[in-house]
Amino acid sequence: MFARVSHSVRITLLIVPCIAVLAITLLLQSTPVAQGGTADGVFDFGLTGDQLYGPDGIAKWPALQAGLDAAPLSFVVFGGDFKNGSTVCDDATFADRLQRFSNSAHPFVFLPGDNEWTDCWRENNGSYD
Fold first, then answer.
1. What's residue 46's pLDDT?
2. Residue 123: DSSP 8-state
3. Which residues 6+ apart lie within 8 Å of 32 measured at CB?
4. Vertex 95 angle, CA 48 and 23, to 5°
5. What is the pLDDT along the chain (129 residues), one digit of tens a residue?
6. Which residues of 42-76 are buried (b: 16+ CB within 10 A; e: fewer)?
7. 15, exposed or middle or buried, with CB in 10 Å at 0-12, 13-18, 19+?
8. Which of 27, 9, 24, 11 is nearest to 78 (CA)?
9. What predicted TM-score, i.e. pTM, was given to this entire model?
10. How far apart are CA 87 and CA 84, in angstroms?
């Protein structure tokens, strides 16, 4: 059985991440040189997501993060899903991802995906409310 999601919740789930990315972009455009950009307002950012799935994905993360850290980026956005749809939503998993993302050499923006919160009610995710 699946929970029904109201229309207003679906709209909110679409709008909130868009507003967050827009706000960050506007802030960075106002001070591009201070944020690693150029005087003409050009800057680069990293975008990733759907990572750290299982032991293999966890083992690959350090190389991906090292690549992002080595690049001349203004910031990095993680677009959600730092665990697969059946990984337990326990404190240890969330603390691990926070620690990994906090190690970024660049400002790091995390946008939650469905695996981090809408899947957590499932029995195989720990039956969290």
1. 96
2. G
3. 38, 39, 40, 41, 42, 43, 74
4. 45
5. 445 545 455 555 566 676 677 666 666 655 545 555 566 778 899 999 999 999 999 999 999 999 999 999 999 999 999 999 999 999 999 999 999 999 999 999 999 999 998 899 899 999 987
6. ebebbeeeebbbeeeeeeebeeebeebeeeebbbb
7. exposed
8. 24
9. 0.70
10. 6
Counting DSSP H helices and E strands in the chain, the numbers are: 4, 3
Integer Cα distance of 72 and 63 in angstroms: 16
- 78 is written with which tokens? 């993680």
Q: Which two tokens stand for residue 98?
A: 């926070």
Classify each residue of 25-36 as buried b or exposed e, where b means 16 or more C-beta atoms within 10 Å of its C-beta. eeebeeebeebb
Tokens 């919160």 label which residue?
117
